[in-house]
Amino acid sequence: MPNTETAFLELINTRKWRTLKRALKTLDAVEAAQLVEDNSKGNKIILFRLLSRKQAKEVFKLLPRTEQENVIEGLAENFQKLTRLLNDINPDDRTAFFEELPGDIAQRLIQKLSPEEQKITIQLLSYPKDSIGRLMTPEFVAIRSHFTVAEAFAHIRQHGKDSETLNVIYIIDDQWKLIDDISIKELILASPDQLVDELIDNKFVSLHAMDDQESAISVFKNYDRVALPVLSQEGVLLGIVTFDDIMDVIEEESTEDFHKFGSVQNVGKNPLKERIFNLYKNRIVWLVLLVFMNIFSGAALESFEDVIQSFVALVFFLPLLIDSGGNAGSQSATLMIRYLALGEIQLSDWYKLIGRELLVSFLLGITMAASIAAVASFRAPEIVVIVCIAMVINVMLGSLIGLLLPFIFTKLKIDPATASAPLVTSLSDICGVLIYFSIASRLLEF
């Protein structure tokens, strides 16, 4: 059997379809997905069409969104294969795929679903974007509290085949309201004649369908669950959200925050496939705004023109000083945004952090001032004191700007990640120029 991409390519070129199909069966889902992704568009469709039904379902889930679209486009002529794939995909994965497609294309694909899968898909897509309802899957196992353990296992064997996970079993009443959940381990260790009602304590953790997806991250983190039930406002069990779905949300949110912190907006799927104009558009707005902000730095320099002309050596240390303040501010902002995102600090904690940040930034500033003093003592000994004082103040001020901006943005209900590195750096630059030359003017009596 082939074990390299070249060997699989040789089977495609020689049209040995049966051998290729048998070879694909020996691959796990990750290996098969990588093989499909690494091949040309025509070959990836051939490979995908030869996957078993079970493999196709798993491989499709692992492919990047652009590759999923290529597969759907390539299977469009094969109505039976496409219909089977769309019906086999887990409802939550199918919903995530459909919501990224243009509306007309999504509607055409929904028409290929069975009536039952259509109903599920339309229901999930009806929830607001980024809500937990969009993440959940209705494929779970629920039992009644009056079941014996033996009856519960019989029910699980009958209905658990298509369940997203069997680690947790949900207990509901006659109105499908959630009473509790129980791990499969507890059921296995219980006596077959014992009632499920005797095993539960009516204490459970749940999510609400209309809540924001980000709220689920902290719940999974705090309670260490592999899956959580999703309820309606009336407490009816609608579906479940699994840990792998939350991992996808964490990845998306982290990527989004990373781009915001770099002052990039509405990032496309792939820079190699995105239109040049879109790449330009996503970056130009913040860059232009920051250009106008930096005009203030130029105006500040102009106001100290006489000092600069008299002590040209001051200019030598200017980039170093303002960059140090900006770097310290970016560090502080990064930490605060991270802590806020993880819930380790709250909005009300801002005043508790100021004292600590002042002390830390003072120590940082002193250390950096000692370093720059060694250079200044050889290059321009007459301004050593000015450079050292400016360094300490710039680092402290930059750190405070980086600390406070995320809190201010959060208070204004703006994503704190928008307090990006370029914004912190620009503000620190303006302040750094004013501080440096104000100290120089004062001490040099100019």
From TrEMBL:
It is a multi-pass membrane protein. Residues 200-256 form the CBS domain. The chain crosses the membrane at residues 284-301, 307-328, 358-378, 384-409, 421-439. It is found in: Cell membrane; Membrane. NCBIfam families: mgtE. Belongs to the SLC41A transporter family. Homodimer. Acts as a magnesium transporter. This is Magnesium transporter MgtE. It comes from Bizionia myxarmorum.
